[in-house]
Fold this sequence. Notes:
Blueprint: E1 10-13, E2 17-21, E3 26-31, E4 36-41, E5 47-51, E6 57-58, H1 65-82, E7 89-93, E8 98-102, E9 105-106, E10 111-118, H2 122-126, E11 136-145, E12 154-155, H3 157-162, H4 168-190, E13 194-206, E14 209-213, E15 221-225, H5 236-265
Antiparallel strand pairs: 1-2, 2-3, 3-8, 4-5, 4-6, 7-8, 9-13, 10-11, 10-13, 11-12, 13-14, 13-15
Helix pairs in contact: 1-5
Amino acid sequence: MKLSKNSLSKIYEGKTKDIYQYRDDKILLYTKDQTTGWWKTDNTGNRYFEEDPGGNETGPAVTGMGQKNLISSEYYFKKFIEAGIPTHYIGCDIDENLMLVKAGKIFGQGFEAIIRFHAMGSLLRRFPNQYTEGQPMIDFFETTLKLDADNDPSITKEALAEQGILTELQYDQVKRICRDAAEIIRADLKEEDLTLVDIKFELGLADEEIILIDEISAGVMRVAKDEVSAANILSEEELADVLVTRAKRAKIIEALLANQENCCIN
């Protein structure tokens, strides 16, 4: 699909994506080369950037990261659609870093849903004495508000309903969608002997249907190689390369199967 943002109005500029008004009920997402995490200072006073999918700050641009994230988003959104999981995905132009999506509505000012398979990141910072690094989690699901100034605070099902952000029934639907999507990614990564540690999703409404939005990339998940520990978490760049390889391999297989089918038809 050929897409262009030329002559389109930019309606939002984000940390890792810009949004352009397309036509009808569609928008274009332009993926940037930024990674997310936190700027920190070491003992000598030098600042450094620590990648973290839960971070609210952007680090130095990594050439090609936007395109890699778009490739992985296309790969997983297509898997979700095949599995009957609703998404905003319509199509993309990899060369231009552009994805065409449904123009849905966000819940409130935006919120994120998180599936955790192992204890890591902010969970350990919030509950240092309750969880150990890498501890397996059973059906751990939580939601946070997208409020950078407040470090994306956690919010309960009841509070979301009380504030009119989404109903308790919608919360249950969101949880089911995210669990199903996370299991698809978890199984996919297992084929590379990798472990999905946690992942965050963004959701919205399109035609009154709850859908997965934003992106499914190395920037929204933690993945470990071998034993689950902070030391074994793949960097965003390393994981992006793994996801791109899987996506390209899937396209090659798809093309081969299509050729075999055409040969049989002839």
